[in-house]
Amino acid sequence: MKHADIKAAAEALFNEQRNPFGIGSETHHAVTIPDAVRRCRWIAVDINASAFGLYFVSPSPERARLVPSFDSDYPATAVATKFIAGANGEEMVRHSGTSTAPRWWADDGIAGSDTVFQNLAWAERAAPLAPGTNGIAFPVHADRGHCGLVVFLGSTIALLEDMLYEIHARCFSLFAAVARIRPSDASRMRSISKRELECLKLTANGNTSEEIARLLKLSVHTANQYLTQSTQKLNAVNRNQAVAKALRLGLIE
Amino acid sequence: MSSSAALLQSDTLGSRLASRGDLTSFFMQLAAEIGADSYMLVAIVHDQDRNDARIVSSNWIFDAIELIGKRLIAGLAQGPLTVAPGIRPKPLVAAEAPDAGGLLTGEEARLLDVLGHAEVYSLRLNVGRQRLFALFSAAEAGKIDQPALMKAQLKCCYALSTIPQLVAAAAMQDPLSDRERECLFWVSEGKTTDEVAVILGVSSNTVNSYITHAIQKFAASNRAMAIATAIRSGII
């Protein structure tokens, strides 16, 4: 257990550096992708899966699809991921919008594969996400509307109902950690001033520039300037996008 | 055999909830399994600038809900003690509450204790994109089994996933139509009305009317606020 303690301490330290605003809760540490891959591999080992992958559901309602974050071939991309992120994943994306129930599929070519999953309460059978293997997909959610899928593949997956809840819980916590990784945005976060964030937050609450100026005892010109600056720093084209970006990044609540 | 007895039996094999009655017996059974005396399933609804608790199902006595007040319940559900699946939950212990980050006043804490909620756990439930909260409480602190509670949290998510219509109606977090949601999403990506019109292949007037409807449905005062509300509730 000593190793685990050291790891936890290192993660905590890392989290502190990653989240200068203290957004991170103490249990959903932001990690690096290699860390996340390792954590996912531990889950895979526990259910005897040979491959895994973590995907985000892209927020675009136009054509919701799965965007790969990593899979068991990290840093390369596994063949299975190409199937999952392609057309095979579309039905699963729809499913995860309304349900949190895990979905499994069994390949006919593998003897007795149905029985592995059939005893799982609540889990549903679905069309295969990747051909030639058994698999199970766990819908996961994190703060600020992040939605995703953790998938395990393998012909020898073994999963008892009692373990299902724990495995899914671990997928949730892993996904929450991955959803916090925002390497390219971390530096921008720091450069946005407290005042600029205040103005953005008030904009998100429906206030106009005039109202913000009155509330913060600034001139309208200054309030507008803060908003323009924060929009630029967030690399947004207008205020609406700046508000959306700041919320999605967790800069404002 | 009564229907609740049938549900108790079939639960070990997993089951579908069909009605509010099923929902109640599911939660009663789950509460018994984890050592809780009471449960409450709550949706948080955004009403103007404050959040209100909408109680979907509960076995709290009516007076307790009245006395504690929905504002306090909403505060509990959205407070720092509420955990997502996969995080070890921490209880609100009424006896220690005034120290617990100023969540309750001493009087409110005493009231909770007297009403049989000496410890309260607050769990976030994800049912697809909808979000609900489950409060489990016991008359004595330390009675609720934590590992069982963590499993129960996922079980709640699964069970509620079988009744998406009921959950959506209760949570009312997504009042938008598909088109309205699409428009709002593109506006949140910084697109102007004209650009959204091109993307969706409709006229600018139509786009504006979709967005106006979305703003009205959220009781927002402008686009930025509608976007913020939609993102906060995970709709876009």
UniProtKB/TrEMBL annotation, chain B:
Record-annotated HTH luxR-type domain positions: 169-234
CDD domains: LuxR_C_like (cd06170)
PROSITE patterns for the chain: HTH_LUXR_1, HTH_LUXR_2
UniProt keyword Cell wall biogenesis/degradation present: no
UniProt keyword annotations, A-Z: DNA-binding, Transcription, Transcription regulation
SMART domains: HTH_LUXR
Annotated signal sequence range: none
Keyword Isomerase: no
PANTHER family in the cross-refs: DNA-BINDING TRANSCRIPTIONAL ACTIVATOR DEVR_DOSR
Protein name: LuxR C-terminal-related transcriptional regulator
Organism this protein belongs to: Mesorhizobium caraganae
